[in-house]
Design goal:
81% helix, mainly alpha, single chain
């Protein structure tokens, strides 16, 4: 991908985002925050989750 294509893509995304109504943008932001993974998964990946699943299974 050339630099020109990348700048074109970023511009399209930027314009698409700001063409949306403000309420829709806020709603999308809050839903993204609500579906955030737990901190242990976010910081350390799937290893803590796998260990906890193994402990719960035994």
């Amino acid at each position: 991908m050339s630099t020109n294509d990348f700048v074109k893509f970023l511009t399209q995304q930027f314009v698409r985002y700001f063409d949306q109504p403000k309420e829709k943008r806020r709603k999308k932001k809050t839903t993204r925050k609500d579906h955030k993974p737990p901190l242990s998964v976010q910081w350390f990946g799937l290893v803590p989750m796998a260990i906890s699943m193994l402990i719960k299974r035994k």
